Amino acid sequence: MKKSMLKFVILFSLIILFISCSKKTQNGEKSDKKKITITFWAYEPTEINGRELYKKILDMFYKKYPEIRVKIVYITKDGSKEKLRSAIVTNSLPDCSYLDYASLPSYAKGNTIYNLEELFPRLKEKPILDDFYKGVETLCKYKNKFYALPLSQQCVALFYNKDLIKKPPKTWDEMIKIAKKIYKPGKIAAFDVPQPNGWGAWFFPAFLYSAGGKLIDESGKKVLFNSEAGVKALNLWKELLKYSPKDIIYSAYAFESGKISMELSGRWEIMKIEANFPNLNYGITLVPKDKKYATNMGADLLVVYKSSKHPIAALKFIYFLTTPEVQRIVQDIVGGLPIRKGLEKYWKDDEKMQIFLKQAEYAVPPPSVPGWAKINDVVIADAIREVLDGKLSAQEALNKAAERANKILQEEAE
Amino acid sequence: MSFLSLPLRKKREYIWAFLFVSPVLLYALVFIFIPMVIAFVSSFTRWDMISPPKWVGLKNYIGLFTDRVTYPYFWKSLWVTVKYVLLVVPCSLVLSLFLAFMLSEKIKGRSIFRTLYFLPVITSAVAVGVVWKAIYDPQVGILNKILSVIFHKNITINWIYNPKLAIISIALVTVWQGLGYYTVIYSAALTNIPKSLYEAAEIDGANKWQQFWYVTFPMLYPTTFFLLVTSVISTFQVFDMIYIFTNGYPTPETMVFTLQIYKYAFVYNNMGVACALSYILFLIMIVITWLQFKFVPQHYE
User: Fold this and answer.
1) Residues from B in contact with A at Cβ < 8 Å
2) For A261-299, what is each residue's pLDDT tens digit?
3) Which backbone phi and psi does A223 adopt, to 5 degrees?
4) Residue B138 and residue A247: Cβ atoms within 8 Å?
């Protein structure tokens, strides 16, 4: 009996030894004597050749910085928030990673990421930061300082079916006119009216700003969307919904199969259409305007974590990702738009991309205040639902929403 | 009697027993009990998982119960979840009992039917959700097509996006998916009922229906009780199916309780409220299970 007990203890300690050993070899790899290795968490590319393209980028990077090695770890975009937050709590963050723009304020406030402006002077060459799109720059900053560099941006434009619409609308009035003409009960819907949920609410600013409105005041403490512009925007949606039956617009691939004549979407949609519906005769144009052109936007950012042992190397890498030659490759991986102005030349022959690049100039960034995700998901979505269902007038719904939003803002600021 | 005063043989046995269960104990400690304690403490804090947590006392709980501006869907989500459970659990139990009964007869291809009914159970909820979303599509979905043929007119029902239908449609899929599991357990229970009881009933002149009602049904009390308790708990915690059907953007009509927990934890950056919600759910489950143990017959007397 004693012998078997001894055996057990030996086996058990061997297991522990193995576990601790495997941990050590990992660490050993990291601290390679000559070369610095940094870890970078990137979203798993949606395109099949995405990983190949990342390899290409790394080769370019190694040519410029032979002393640095980058280990890319792919994480799913949907799971990235959970993953990063768990990594913060367990102190196992990478050196640098993607970050969605909405998380930046809390990460900066929580002192998890570097204020990059503290690191910039330690770079040999001065980084170029003045040709970012305005909206992108806003999303990278916290308290007016760069806490992140942009990787890519997304904005929406109007997709229209060329078989149904000869001349795409430029203004809201034209949009309604076309909608009336196109609508065929039970067969063709005019416009894919945004749904009354968090996703649909994301499109609201595009119309609000176009009518001259604003989401929030400068201080970030009071919302302004219950203005005349907000009312006008929701009423436009309500009007368009008359010509867009829900049983058509909520059907899958309705635009692609020619049942919806106009929809709002981003560049990712082009890739989807070209892969699955190569025969669709469609065009892209700027989102129709009321007073001025506008669109909503989002961005993927790059950050360096305070826990990193090689912050400068990490910064070198993420800055490298923003340089024009790399941007040209990156955007085809993530299906986004470049974050620096003046890169139109890379997509010279791509008519659709040209329109998106033009649309990006009118992009308005979402407010970067804590609590906005909830206001968007819950408060604005509720207002849209109440208006589209005809329960409240646009003014009533937006007033109610503004009151709720202000209270949430106040609570979040505490 | 303390451990030390036990005879050596007994002591050894205890040590071995403990060693054998220690991996599971360790697992439970690390992955269940410690997180439970942390979640309990976190529920009294305001914590975004980035900055250190801040103690707020009972504020999260009070807010959830009273503040309809900051937490607009708390009661609503509870009601949606209850509605969902009330749809799924009775339907699952009745249908699976019926199926088990049918499969207990000696019919041709019985094992094939059993396999087919069990197949959805081992399919991932994600795959099931994607397939059913296509089936429910208002324009091209096969369900509307079939209904159109039956009723001789063009039917385009919004199964998922009609606020009144959404939760019913999703509940239907859940019933369909879980049916096989309940059927297997009921089948096993049915084969365990002694034949002699039926023979005795027959001699007493009971017809098939009476046999079912006075013999089979009471004999199935323990099984039904087990299935009731476990299915209420598991359907109360529905998440993946709703997430897939709503693309992660639920409307108030599809915002079930666990989805709300997820939203607060990882979208609205409020782990404290998410933990408070989890504990409220935990308490609700304890109360419901206790009520079931108290009022639902577990054995045939």
Assistant:
1) 12, 19, 48-51, 69-70, 72-73, 133-134, 137-141, 154, 156-158, 160-161, 246-252, 263, 266-269
2) 999 999 989 988 988 999 999 999 999 999 999 999 999
3) -85, 155
4) yes
Q: Do A250 and B252 touch (CB under 8 A)?
A: no
Q: Do residue B133 and residue A248 have CB atoms under 8 angstroms apart?
A: no
Alpha helix (H) ranges present in A77-190? 80-89, 104-109, 116-119, 134-140, 172-182
CB-based contact (8 Å) between A78 and chain B?
Answer: yes
CA pair distance B257, B261, nearest whole angstrom: 6
Least CB–CB distance from A252: residue in B69, B70, B134: B134
Question: Is the CB of A374 less than 8 angstroms away from the CB of B48?
Answer: no
Q: Compute the nearest-CA separation of A70 from chain B (Å).
A: 25
CA distances from B1 to B4, B6, B7, B18 (A): 8, 7, 11, 18
Q: What is the pTM of this model?
A: 0.84
pLDDT tens readout for residues B147-165: 999 999 888 888 988 888 9
CA distance B31 to B44: 21
Q: Is the pLDDT of residue A399 over 70?
A: yes
Q: What is the mean pLDDT of the segment spanning B50-79? A: 92
CA–CA min distance A341, chain B (Å): 31
Q: Phi-psi bin for A389: left (phi > 0), alpha (psi -120 to 50), beta?
A: alpha
Tokens representing A164?
């149904």
Is the distance from CB of A364 to CB of A295 less than 8 angstroms? yes
Q: Residue A65: what residue type?
A: Y
Q: Which chain B residues have a beta carbon less than 8 Å from that of A195?
A: 161, 249
Handedness of CA A242, A245, A246, A251 (dihedral sign): negative
Span A354-372, mean pLDDT?
A: 91
